[in-house]
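so ive been stuck on this for like two days lol. basically i have the seq below and the ligand is S-adenosylmethionine, smiles is in there too. i just want the complex predicted, nothing fancy, no docking runs or whatever. if the output looks off dont worry ill sanity check it later, just need somthing to start from for the group meeting slides
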Amino acid sequence: MNPYDLIPRFRAQYDTNNQEFSISGVVRPQSIDELAPSLTLLKESIARVRGILYVNIRRLTQMNNTAFHAFSRVIIDACRTRPDLKFVVITSSVVGWTTRKFGRLHGLEPNITVEEYDSQFYPGQSFLEEGGFIPILRTQTKMTWRHERKILPRHGMQPGIVMADICCGIGDFAVLVQKEFQPARIVALDHSRSSLDYARSVAADFDIRGIEYTYGDASEMLLEEDQFDLVTCRHSLQIFNRPELILKELFRICRPGGRVYITNEKNSHCLGEPRADSIQWTYNEVAKLFKHFEMDVELGPKSRRYLIEAGFEDIRVESFMVTNGDGDPQDFADVITAWENVYAGDMAVRRGDDPEMIERFRQGFQDHIFAALHPKGYAGWPIWVASGRKPS
Amino acid sequence: MIVASRDTDFGPMIQVDMEIKSFLSMWLYCDQISSYLARMVSHNRSDSVRHSNLFSSVANELLEVAFRTRHPDGELACRVSRQGRVDRIELTFPCTPEERQFYREALSQIVGSATGDRYMNSVSGDLSPSREVVLLELAVDYKAKLRLEETEADTIKLVVDLPLEDLPSEPV
Ligand SMILES: C[S@@+](CC[C@H](N)C(=O)[O-])C[C@H]1O[C@@H](n2cnc3c(N)ncnc32)[C@H](O)[C@@H]1O
């Protein structure tokens, strides 16, 4: 027998400050005895709390019925002896069975409720999901792909690799990679069901096979560790309030010797001629606006630091400028229009900006479009690409 | 429960065979075999990771049931096949005549609308779940359809049809 098999694959903890008991990993004991320390911890936690005990099972990937019964019994018994207590079980929508199974406990004891933690997810999710942003992501990817297809081989992309695209959005990047580089396997993960539905229907329509679209939370993925030759995460670290947590997960699923590839923006460096000043003013404001919602769209040049701090080596950073001269200038203009709608029409309003401010804010986007479509104009959108190798 | 489709409609995907003696030598086999099967059969499902997670839960419970057999002689066979959106697990393992009768009764009770209630009563009642409750849970939480298939004496074959692709991802 492999000695590692004896290492318990689950962890139970109690956090006094948050009155939170958490259990994570794979819990498949042969008998309840194996759970004794965790059950005791749960009982002690119950004895110590007042009001509410949070039971965090977000990272509980498997639990057999033996364990489920044992933990449930302790909680149910506590409901009967301590009617003053409430139990809130925190599940993750990503682990398919937990909410349903633990949700049943509410039927037995009304003081047990179950909350799915990631329903309201990262600060900007709603802006992007509700804003009709899908066609724009598509145009954006088309514009960045012209550059990235040449850049990617320098960062570990090659035929036959096993790769994952985390925060894949509507999946266009995965499709383009599939066509151009023929990896052996692509897992494409996102936390938006609507984007994934869209991605799956596109794949079906175009008879594209071999891309595994999967629903998940980038900060706590069900994917096993050390399995991908290349993990990409594009334009997404910048929308999380704690990008280092995502990076940690990207690192985990990457195989030793494999690479993690990230792209990010520095929005204040979007530029155009003519009307450079107005454009610059607006994009400086974009950066501040995102900051207000705890997102850092200035992250691009910080990639190197993030990768080093996450433990990567052989870090490679480069940047490229998407411009109105790359392809159809109207594509560029369409993207700016979408930005204007979401940033000025939605986010600035949500922040409570007054109409004059919003008008000036919109003007910079209009001027950027003007520059993009002007026969002698130039409009640019800079992107930072960075990758690092996971030490072997 | 009676399943309308015939076996021949299901395309075989993978099968694991093992001496029941060696299977019973290590509890962790339940987990390892279920994880392995789940990984092997899930990659072309609409959401491979989710499918694998759910499939592994079900297969593990079934293997744990087999692990409790009182007839430690013969072969364990776990076979997975697929028809469209339904996956089928066929688990054959040795058992005593009494156990066989027990499974027959247990499965005949997994019908009707009160299954969810009966399952929950067991959670608040028994200390650890019986084999019957474990099978009931598969019907309740995974919409599994379970039946027995006749085999030679001293073995039993559980046939479990799993509509995981159609299991709602959002709680209802
Ligand atoms: C700015 S988009 C980038 C999409 C895509 N990579 C692209 O370049 O078009 C950010 C994506 O991150 C996804 N996302 C947000 N939070 C997530 C999470 N916790 N886990 C996985 N994906 C998440 C969103 O649904 C969205 O599709």
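Chain B touches chain A through 40 residues (CB under 8 Å). Chain B has one domain: 14-166.
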